[in-house]
Amino acid sequence: RSLIAQPHTSAGRVPTDQGYRVFVDRLSQVKPMSAAERRAIGSFLDGAVDLDDVMQRSVRLLAQLTRQVALIQYPSLTRSHVRHIELVGLGPTRVLLVLIADTGRVEQRFVETGVSMTDDLLGRLRGRILERVTGQRLVDVAGRVSDLPEQFAADERPAVTAVVASLLETVVERHEERVMLAGTANLAKFGEDFTGTVRPVLEALEEQMVLLRLLGESRTTDVLSVRIGRENEVEGLTSTSVVTVGYGPGDDVVAQLGVVGPTRMDYPGTMGSVRAVARYVGRILTEQQ
Hints:
three-stranded antiparallel beta sheet, single chain, alpha+beta, five-stranded antiparallel beta sheet
């Protein structure tokens, strides 16, 4: 297969998808960031106040660094551990359940117990739950609390059962995992690099399920992934390249981040920026634990 193509008679010759693949595969290392760039990343991300802020700052920063479209997936609940669970009484039969994961993700649910719940019962239930699930993976919580109602008096079980049921609903992985996007306007600068028009690319990026597919294919690894042109099976994105990597606290990978841009991109620089931002986000999540 040819490694160079001339898309228009008036255009210069450019590498084909296969040509870029050979180039990327031969990159012995990604382009290191300068000390100034590393300091800028650190100071920008260190100012984040919570997980939402970390996600927003990270995706905006990545879009600015690469001048591409940046994507970041929120930490997956199934890859998270319980840091804390709080139960707050809001009335005789109403409780606020707050679950805080080690990734900084916070889930809240209002529970209608149907029967009165005393502060004493609320305190005892909170203690029993924390005793069993603190530090545990969210996917293991169900097996550790399902028998809790049996540990309480008969008249207390209906309220305890309602709270436990709400906790179980909270830790079940949701299908509507969130992906945040930034820098879509950057694509307009590369209109001539896309086959036909940039519109199919923009339309594809509007679909959350498409974004999850882009990020989800390699979500269990922290190895940098580069998919070039038709290696992307998503319709509308066959004229783009997608660079992704996993991030998370320590050695754990809890989600993916990356960029989408034209196949004619600065691969060493883009790969370096993606990896650097992922490492900083992972460091922030580690410090939150």
